[in-house]
Amino acid sequence: MKIINLIFPPHCPLCGELLALNEGRVHKACYKKLPWVKEPLCKRCGKPISSETGEWCLDCFKSRERHSRSFDSGRALWLYKGDIQKSVLDYKYKGLRSYTPFYGEEASRVLGSWIRQKAPQVLVPVPLHPRKKRIRGFNQAELLARDIGKRMNIPVDGKILRRNRWTEPQKALSDRERRHNLTKSMEIHHLPENLKRVMLVDDIYTTGSTMEVCGAILKKAGVEKVYFLTLCIGFGEG
Ligand SMILES: [Zn+2]
Ligand SMILES: [Zn+2]
To answer: Which class is domain 34-233?
Structure first.
């Protein structure tokens, strides 16, 4: 490990600068600035909300009018802003896999008891389309799930869900079109027997449409409880 550190000196996953020898995984000053998710949280997706009396964030509330959320509950570590936002983007698009142990360690430490309480039989990374995975070289959600799984002794199964077709960037589409495309692009690939409780893992949760679709597909296949865990989450109105 020491030799590896000499050849590839570790960088701080938050500011991207070099770490001094024995400085640990992250600069203390960078760590102090992390925007931790704090109560009150949406009872469904775990987004921080402004009002103590509100139970759900606006997205979850709106989705309740359409159809209930397909996932049961979720948690994230940090708000999607500042250094951690850049960190997660670099992780994904610049292939900085060396950030994985920092993320995995924090997730297991901070959300460990919540994960144990939900008792997922398996962690399922949100899949990337195979073409995207080839371009990027890896699926960041899968790296995360494997790291957390190893620390918490929970199996990881990256073969349960699969993206089956290329979806064009979704920004120009309406919510409905986006959801429709997403639903058609995701499928069950291989479902283990007696699978009742699943925890999805991804890097970011924004409106929840990806989790929604994964959850709906899993529930249709007979899974009873679907939870999710992400590194970052947006702030919820309501
Ligand atoms: Zn730093
Ligand atoms: Zn919510």
So the answer is: alpha beta
